[in-house]
Structure prediction request, 110 residues.
Amino acid sequence: MRAKQLPDEIGSLVRLEKLSLNNNRLSELNQNVGKLKALQFLLLSNNKLQALPNSVSDCSVLEELDVSDNQIASIPDELGKLEKMKTLNLDRNLVSQVSELAWSHYNRAS
Prediction:
């Protein structure tokens, strides 16, 4: 069975480090995902996501976000807050432009 949505209780998994929901039918991502403060890997490829909630930027230790093979047209500027991010996969989406704010921390010297 393929998931179509995440329960609100997902936010209670505060020690979760990896969430893999590849190959489902998710059309939206619950705002409570932002409560997953230990989340390092968020894998959401091959779903039906049309957008990412701004709350994803609250996952401050997120290193990898894979949303390839979805229907995302734009990404939130708030993703620029994710200073630990090493991999962002947006392959095969509808994104045509990424704002400068979303990439702001990548432009800072280490």
Summary: The mean pLDDT is 89. The beta strands are 18-20, 41-43, 64-66, 87-89. The radius of gyration is 13 Å. Residues 39 and 65 are 10 Å apart (CA to CA).
